[in-house]
């Protein structure tokens, strides 16, 4: 024993860990007090058992505290939710079974509940998951301003396809800076007088339509996808990009990824064991490399895109960067001077994918814009009287072009109203979703929504609510966005031909029940920008072509929800009939 003590003393002077000293002290005290003699190994085992028991006790206390806290939160949630009206929960598992009832969608369940219980209802998605749906415009406005976060799984589609990035992230703190930068950039572009992207984009699209026009017409979804991609591509890579052979590859890759993105994100556990998943991941990597490749050329003033195909091939082969055929992508440092990265060096956390944000925005912009254009085209071919009036409006404005042609769209109230009305009747996203994970949400009315509840706005119900839109809320009527006034341009005589003579476009965002672009803290920042571009492109198209529904295609305007986007179903074939000019 003396050896052991000597050892301990030596250790005390050295840097032995204190736990070892503890063992030695323990052995020493045991050796002195116990009458029976234990071997050191027995003593060590005894000590280890006690330590292990202590550890188990600690774990037990920690887990019990955690569970008690959860239980406390659960009771708090149940107690606070009591004040919110809603159908009684049919079982411990909540209302989930209701949603799986055949031919009964989530919106149907919400619609039924709202009719019965008023503009704010709760539904239990499970014993611990509370969903609160709001349809009252004033409450919605307040809620969308106060609840800044989205659910933790929001953006999984983007994350899986494009890696770690800040835009579209659940936490507002994380997206805030990027939102501001992108919004400023888009705003600057709108103000730039020499930015004639809309005209070039429109020319490019008309050329394409000329090439793919057949006697049977063009599939509306296909042409809309192409228009949306052209708009987004020109916006982020410059209009020279459109003429590049890489544009077609890029578009194809994007469409392939868009088709499967929601499917792979729907897995709770990412299916690493499936070959198809790895094939999808491979496509995503190719897209990433191609984006970097294109951006690198963008940095050099987009000269590449004005060059011949041969130049493109030569230049590419000299580069370390490989294109869509796979392999190595260039480093994020190469893009530091691209506007998306400007001023962001201080905010980059190092984990972000260099092109993640651009791919996210292009993806979101393409998906939503193409859904909106399909929707507008379908409305125009189904309401020829409106198409004729829009055409008259375009012709009149065209006779007196403004200083910058792309500003002319602001002198076409009926065209803009048609776009807004199409977005109202078929919003691209059926639901806005928010949450406040940490704090209860207190409304001016005194209502409190407990922290942790999922907040949703069933946009379609709000958009078709008679109390906000009148008795014809479900009908297509662009005049919902127009009011009679004295503003407008062109001669009164001319404008009276259009039937919208003294009509003025109301600011759609003044109506709290208009939410295709969301509202509040996390509202879409691309709204103004995309409306202007879509209107410009449509004006150029309608000036050149009369749109007709191919008699063979189905006029049924049933809608489906695909990849979280509303779509007309079945797809209409549109004839682009050339006008005499
Ligand atoms: C017709 C086209 C578009 C529609 C219908 C649309 C719709 C939406 C909607 C509904 C949201 C969510 C808003 C909310 O939760 O309150 C959103 C978010 C967003 N949109 Fe759009 N969008 C469109 C085009 C664009 C474009 C062209 C851009 C950029 C160039 C853009 C950038 C964004 C961004 C960055 C967010 C994320 C905001 C955040 O997470 O904080 N959008 N958009």
Entry keywords:
iron, alpha+beta, Cytochrome p450, 21 helices, 3 domains, three-stranded antiparallel β-sheet, 13 strands, Uridine Diphospho-n-acetylenolpyruvylglucosamine Reductase, domain 2, 581 residues, Cytochrome_P450_Monoox, Cytochrome P450
CATH architecture of the largest domain: Orthogonal Bundle
CATH homologous superfamily grouping of the largest domain: Cytochrome P450
- Radius of gyration using CA atoms only: 31 Å
Q: What's the level 1 CATH class of the largest domain?
A: Mainly Alpha
Give the cofactors and ligands.
protoporphyrin IX containing FE
Unreliable residue runs: 7-18, 301-328, 330-337, 343-347, 487-499
CATH topology of the largest domain: Cytochrome p450
Q: What is the count of structural domains?
A: 3
Describe the overall structure:
- This protein folds into three domains: 65 residues, no CATH class; 111 residues, Uridine Diphospho-n-acetylenolpyruvylglucosamine Reductase, domain 2, CATH 3.30.43.20; 375 residues, Cytochrome P450 (Cytochrome p450, Orthogonal Bundle).
- It is 53% helix and 9% strand.
- The chain contains 21 helices and 13 strands.
- Helix 11 crosses helix 12.
- 36% of the residues are buried.
- The site of protoporphyrin IX containing FE has 27 residues, from helix 8, helix 15 and helix 21.
